[in-house]
Amino acid sequence: MDQQQTSFEGYAVLELMGHNQAYGFVTTCYFGGPALFRVDRPEIPKREYELKRAQWIGDVLAQPGTKVEREAVPGSTVFVGPQAVFRMTPCDEATVRECIERNIQAPIKVLSLVEQKRIAPSDPNERQEHLETCEEVDCATCKAYQAEIEDEQIRY
């Protein structure tokens, strides 16, 4: 019985036993008889970018638009036995880099924070002062303050 050996070479996302994943350039390697998948994860350099969605950084909730700097993620190589692979999804290098960015957390530093918008202050005096001095027609802040006052009156 002649058994044909096939191989794979290209970028892929591997889902592994134990709820693990591996991302990178995959090649099939043979050591003696058994085959292994060699997964070479590319290096992601140090980079600056703006957050697209709110994210906790330490004890600060950084808003979208916050400028951050993320440390480099070093490249690495791992060998995986085919028995440990549940699924292998071929993809392009950009997809692999996006998976690394989302799932392998490198230290992050805030360069400039976007201020979080405040709907209503917690100070009733500040709220009342705004309602008395605001000259804007159809003011969203006034509506929010008025709703807050009505809520307080219903509760008490």
Radius of gyration: 27 Å
Judging by the overall fold, what is the CATH architecture of the largest domain?
Roll
What global shape is seen? elongated
C-alpha termini separation: 85 Å
Q: How would you classify the helix and strand content by structural class?
A: alpha+beta
Strand order of the largest sheet: 8-3-2-1-9
Order of helices and strands: EEEEEEEEEHEHH
- Report low-confidence residues grouped into runs of 5 or more: none
Stated plainly, the CATH topology of the largest domain is called: SH3 type barrels
Helix content: 10-25%
* Portion in strands: 35-45%
How does this structure look, described?
With 156 residues, the chain is α+β, with helices and mostly antiparallel strands. Helix content is 24%, strand content 36%. The chain is built from 3 helices and 10 strands; from the N terminus they run βββββββββαβαα. It has helices at 93-103, 124-133, 140-155; strands spanning 9-16, 20-30, 35-41, 47-50, 55-57, 60-62, 67-70, 76-80, 85-90, 108-112. β5 (55-57) and β6 form a beta hairpin. The radius of gyration is 27 Å and the shape is elongated. The model has no long low-confidence stretch (mean pLDDT 83).
